[in-house]
Amino acid sequence: MERSGLLVILSSPSGAGKSTLARRLMDWDPSLRFSVSATTRAPRPGEVEGDHYYFRDPEQFRIMVRDGQMLEHAEVFGNFYGTPRAPVEEAMLAGRDTLFDVDWQGGQQIRASVLGTHVVSIFVLPPSLAELERRLIARQQDRPEVIAARMQKSRDEISHWAEYDYVIVNEDIEASTEALKTILTAERLRRGRQVGLGPFVQALMREENA
Amino acid sequence: MERSGLLVILSSPSGAGKSTLARRLMDWDPSLRFSVSATTRAPRPGEVEGDHYYFRDPEQFRIMVRDGQMLEHAEVFGNFYGTPRAPVEEAMLAGRDTLFDVDWQGGQQIRASVLGTHVVSIFVLPPSLAELERRLIARQQDRPEVIAARMQKSRDEISHWAEYDYVIVNEDIEASTEALKTILTAERLRRGRQVGLGPFVQALMREENA
């Protein structure tokens, strides 16, 4: 059955395993499109333009917002982040799902956008906050004061868990990956997603030979 | 994570494979409870009291309805059918899902009942009406005029497909069984089902060492 594309929102505090889960989901279903955000923040080591982010200066970013090219945007730690709108709409019409790695602000704005009815939102919780801090420190990307700020942001992020359709406590990455796949597979079976159902049922009930 | 039980409504026209799917789902998850309906119709060959139905005379049935013991009830072909309420509530509180094999009238009433927010409803469509008639004839349980009446009831039933959360076109019983399992597994991950999440997140955010 033909279907419309989903907007799959995956949110979690940093270090809860969200990026790994997103990558595994993309490996499982190569038709999934990862939404690349635009940002005004500087690239971190190894980050590639158009792959991890579209790096834009504040003036370019402002123009994109002004011209309605952003599905959502927000300011975090003095930098701007946003989701370019056109690629999401193109994927939806082609029946492809888009995966969004966004924080609660991004999630709220995508849900509130014109595409909100196509959203499936999933929040990934860490098994504990201590574990989260351990992972952030092990990553060795940030200075202690940045880690402290990130832990505060993590608490803020977690406080929004109840806005999401699904919640996964990521105790085991294999089990959490399976849970994500299951959620996507089930959501694709929802009546409203299967765009060909109406005509199919009409044809079914018009059958002459029955 | 502890969770509350679901009310899983499975509806379809007769012959679309619903009973087979229900049985396979029960085999897959023995904790699933099958809701046994009460009815005033006479037992068919092989039907067992308390297993297929609770067979009740019209006066007994009327008293059950009057005393609020029925979650829903309806009249079909001059017979009454209804769902006893207490076992459903007990299962829910114990975190067990109940599977309902009911028609659209039953589905509507369960959805409209006090337990309606716990409902997940799935409609099973046949690939064609001709195939449906063929299966009804092959079953050799009914006379031609009963089959004609059942086909009319099938059309009525199908006309209510759009009231369900999920729709499965049962072209292949294996694939449809997998789809059902996936829907149940995903629905159990919904935020609102996981009753322990609130306290878990509160404890998470109170962690001292993070």
Automatic annotation (TrEMBL), chains A, B:
Query: What name does this protein carry?
Result: Guanylate kinase
InterPro entries the record matches = GK/Ca_channel_bsu, Guanylate_kin-like_dom, Guanylate_kinase, Guanylate_kinase_CS, P-loop_NTPase
Q: Name one GO molecular function term.
A: ATP binding
Q: What's the source species for this entry?
A: Paracoccus limosus
Membership in a protein family = Belongs to the guanylate kinase family.
User: Which reaction is recorded as catalysed by this protein?
Assistant: GMP + ATP = GDP + ADP
Instruction: Name its cellular compartments.
Output: Cytoplasm
EC code: 2.7.4.8
Chief site of localization: cytoplasm
**Keyword field:** ATP-binding, Cytoplasm, Kinase, Nucleotide-binding, Transferase
Lineage, top ranks? Bacteria, Pseudomonadati, Pseudomonadota, Alphaproteobacteria, Rhodobacterales
Q: Which residues form the Guanylate kinase-like domain?
A: 5-185
Q: Which PANTHER family match?
A: GUANYLATE KINASE (PTHR23117:SF13), GUANYLATE KINASE-RELATED (PTHR23117)
